[in-house]
Design a protein that fits this description.
Blueprint lengths: L3 H10 L4 H11 L4 H13 L2 H16 L2 H16 L2 H16 L7 H10 L4 H37 L1
Helix pairs in contact: 1-2, 1-3, 2-3, 2-8, 3-8, 4-7, 6-7, 6-8, 7-8
Length: 158
């Protein structure tokens, strides 16, 4: 039904999974590493300008509804907890935060933090994009290190 390329793009758009899941999926399904890298970065990046532009009004509206108020408070609290380094280093802090491919970091969280800190779009977008490039490079490299290690180990074990 869908091609592996499209799945890579779509997986990379999903919060929490993002390109950390899209790239391994692509590489495991035989997509060329450069294409996997590009698809994952752009798939991960696509929703981020919308988050930067609309999350604050959406949160404001959600806070008016009792059942959503707690969720928004939790999301805001988590974002602000991670914001001190970003505040200190601004552009580079956000790029590094997004570029570290660990759970709780990434484009979605970086965009949420940037929006809640009122970071200007012309500063936040390039910073997040740079972070996505770093994260995609790290994930692709780690995938190949693990894959080559597994190949080497299976060769050694015979």
């Amino acid at each position: 039904m869908f091609s592996h390329e499209l799945w890579t793009f779509l997986i990379s758009m999903v919060p929490i999974i993002e390109l950390r899941g899209g790239i391994p999926y692509a590489l495991a399904n035989g997509i060329h590493p450069v294409l996997a890298w590009i698809l994952a970065i752009f798939g991960n990046f696509l929703p981020l300008p919308f988050i930067l532009l609309f999350i604050r009004p959406i949160f404001k509206w959600m806070k008016k509804i009792k059942c959503f108020n707690r969720i928004v408070d939790k999301l805001e609290s988590r974002a602000f907890d991670k914001s001190d380094k970003i505040l200190k280093y601004s552009f580079w802090g956000l790029a590094i935060f997004v570029g570290i491919p660990l759970p709780g970091t990434g484009g979605w969280t970086g965009a949420l933090i940037a929006a809640l800190l009122d970071m200007r779009l012309k500063r936040a977008i390039p910073s997040i994009f740079l972070g996505l490039i770093v994260a995609a490079t790290a994930v692709t490299s780690v995938y190949y290190l693990v894959a080559s290690g597994a190949t080497w180990l299976s060769w050694m074990l015979g």
